Amino acid sequence: MGRPRGFDREAALDAALMTFWEHGFDAASVARLTGAMGITPPSLYAAFGDKKALFREVVARYQATWGAYFGDALAEEPTASGGIALALHRAAAAFTDDAHPRGCLVISSAVHCTPDATDVADELRDIRNANLLLLEERLRSDGEPAPATRARYAGTILQGMSQQARDGATRAELEAVAALAWPPPVAPALRTGTASGVAAG
Amino acid sequence: MGRPRGFDREAALDAALMTFWEHGFDAASVARLTGAMGITPPSLYAAFGDKKALFREVVARYQATWGAYFGDALAEEPTASGGIALALHRAAAAFTDDAHPRGCLVISSAVHCTPDATDVADELRDIRNANLLLLEERLRSDGEPAPATRARYAGTILQGMSQQARDGATRAELEAVAALAWPPPVAPALRTGTASGVAAG
DNA sequence: GCATTTCCGTAGTGAGCGCTATAGAATGCG
DNA sequence: CGCATTCTATAGCGCTCACTACGGAAATGC
User: What are the boundaries of each domain within chain B?
Assistant: First the structure.
């Protein structure tokens, strides 16, 4: 009942996702967001609540779509170590995909923020640390040695690769880094979605 | 001639350094800076120019002081590989030192910024990429294989460790990551400033 | 047609941003 | 001393921030 919404909510959410991904939480002003979403501020606030709520919805959508490659890779491979190798390899491709901004939204979009937005930065940090714990448990259940250290090592690589991508590293360069950081136990040619002929050095 | 300055310029610069280090360029407002520096805005602008000029001076001071450990380690060790191992080990300690904010200022203080401050973010990225090139040349001159990939790999580790430190990782955890990432060719006990008994896992 | 409900564009809220005009205070020089 | 010079503090500049009051437009239910 009443006048229906005049824009596609999911499309607007995706536009907001790209804006937050590229500029981060603080630098993505409401004016920038509404410009990218093709709506006006009142429509944004009616549909999503406020800027923080929109960001939280964006993060959830990111985790369910663009950011799902890591968990998928872990689930596909029989061993945790192999899953991490595959995940880092896919991260190299994902972080440099021209279809969206570079790097990882969860890693880079809120490293610093203004005093009244510290909670969103804390939430992203909690997500990262929770993922670290999940990774550690997966390694431990596989009987791997030093699961906590190896989980944190994988997280370190991933976060470093994200910033490297933002600094201009190419997909091939990141794939070489991933291969050096976590050598795969199986032949790379057997992987899915692999770019052949990784240049090293 | 004239009234002398009523505050210590270097002390104020150090206070600004800590503020930028902790909050990043954007979130470190002039009000926050002047509060930490113990001066008023006109004094800041008379002594340092504007916010960007102050930040550039802070970055230079950081590189000459807190951020000098990496180049120092490279210069101390006879081989590039050994120097990187030592540098990463020292980074683990530096990034978690309670005497200052966590992580690396050059890495974390300007990953995102508002539209009229993109130049300072670009400058920091240029510094990072220049350091990467220096590292690559050092590896190449030492006859190491795949110097570009190994240099980028070291940079990836360093950037990842910086964010890990900001996410709450302890010094021991980061040292374990560093040891896993770049195993030292010499016994760790021979190093300087090393914490004994690194816990792995 | 009509009343009702919801959405949308204009315009503007108070607050904080980087930055500065202005006036007073503190020094060195004669 | 008076004077010139430089620093400091108050106060406020124009601007953008996240956010919203308001009136008109567009849809539904009767």
Answer: 9-63, 67-184
